[in-house]
Amino acid sequence: MSHHASVRGAALTGFRALCRSYGLDSAAILREAALPVRAEDEPDRRVPVAAVNLALERAAELSGAEDFGLRLAELRGFSNLGPVTVLARDEPDMRSALDVFIAYLPLHNEALDIRLSLDADVAILSCSIAAPGAKTQALDVAVAMLNRILRQLLGGAWEPQMICLERLAPVRALHFQRVFGRRVQFVQDFSGIVFDPADLARPNLLADVTLRPYTAGLRESLKTQRGEPLATSVRRLLYAMLSNRRCTAPFVAQQLGMSRRTLDRRLVGEGTSFLALLDEVRRDIARGQIEGSRRSMAQIADMTGFSSPAAFSTWFAARFHLSPRQWRTRAQTEAGMNPWASAV
Predict the structure, then answer these.
(1) 276-284 — which CB contacts under 8 Å span 24+ positions?
(2) N or C: which end of the chain has fewer CB within 10 A?
(3) Which residue ranges make up each domain of the chain?
(4) pTM of the model
């Protein structure tokens, strides 16, 4: 079943101006991605996530700017997220603001999944995008926006312990270090932000207690807008948790608060199945990692939930009619003289 997760047109805010600064025709890039040429002028219009990601990757390629997504994120603020901003802004502390932000993020971007995980020493906000195709620039945007939001909620002096990006290290990392600080790390297992868990109890500096009744009313009115196909929720979980080999149908059903039988029945009603979604997500992650990273086949096998590189290679060859190594060689050949094209 084809899937068309959508995002608000606000995801393209600043795209036209940034393209112009590099001498690019933004309209041509948007047409190539099958997007309306004036999408950013209609911030609440829904457009396909995969198409927006494609436009960002194409702009980065044509401009030669590995940091295109990062520069695009700098043109935006918390308000760019529309209703999500209003819902989270007036929560009293960091933890409650993040909980609301994560819960209502699909109102802005149905494919962007942000997860908060905690242990005794660190808190991690990890980002994943449940959409096919390359998404290096889109993940740069997501992490940069998340970092900016945390600074707005906690004050400009706040610093993360580490910024993690899955992407290859750029040829010129200076701008990444300027935006994220020298604690930015590349070729990581996830994209996101590592910070002190004590920060979660800190007060939200943007909160206005007098606006909370309005926010509560808005939240009630939006409840009916948050419904999404179960397949979308399953994809989001798979993208975020696939490397955990416990990410089976019973495990996913438990995470979604239903029985395995209910999960299967509802997915059949949507014209798909758990195994079909698992295969779809594995295909996307495998291709992205083989084409856009220097990870070994053993590492990619682990990321896609296989018990061994041999099992991964057998599965990959059956789907793509080439071995993983043959696919990587072909992708590198097609990348030609662009030394970082495979990263985007």
Answers:
(1) 276/1, 277/231, 277/234, 277/235, 277/238, 278/238, 279/319, 280/3, 280/132, 280/235, 281/130, 281/235, 281/238, 281/239, 281/242, 282/242, 282/315, 283/319, 284/132, 284/133
(2) N
(3) 66-213, 230-343
(4) 0.69
